[in-house]
Amino acid sequence: MGKKSTRCLITVLAMVLTATMMIQEAKSIPLCKVNTNDLQKCRPAVTGNYPPPPTPACCTVAKTANLECLCPFLSRSGIDPSKLKPLFAKCGVNNPSCLP
């Protein structure tokens, strides 16, 4: 392999590594004092007809997040507010003002 080919290969590898890191970083976005990926820890506790109780990991997220800040996103999330209230109660977190 010539010097030109080696440089080209190194450049391509650097580009692929950079793109991979950018994609990994884009998967989780900090929002209202919590990473969006962490919100997934609470998904089972607010979906389905008979959701299970929230896990300790979910409660940690609920206690860490700025729930007032999340209000606009909660209303657009499609999650039934009646399922959020039990989650907050079981985690010992006060309901945000956006939940009736």
Automatic annotation (TrEMBL):
Keywords: Signal. GO terms for biological process: systemic acquired resistance. Residues 1-28 form the signal peptide. Pfam families: LTP_2. Residues 32-98 form the Bifunctional inhibitor/plant lipid transfer protein/seed storage helical domain. PANTHER family: BIFUNCTIONAL INHIBITOR_LIPID-TRANSFER PROTEIN_SEED STORAGE 2S ALBUMIN SUPERFAMILY PROTEIN (PTHR33122:SF40), LIPID BINDING PROTEIN-RELATED (PTHR33122). This is Lipid-transfer protein DIR1. It comes from Raphanus sativus (Radish). The gene is LOC108842253.
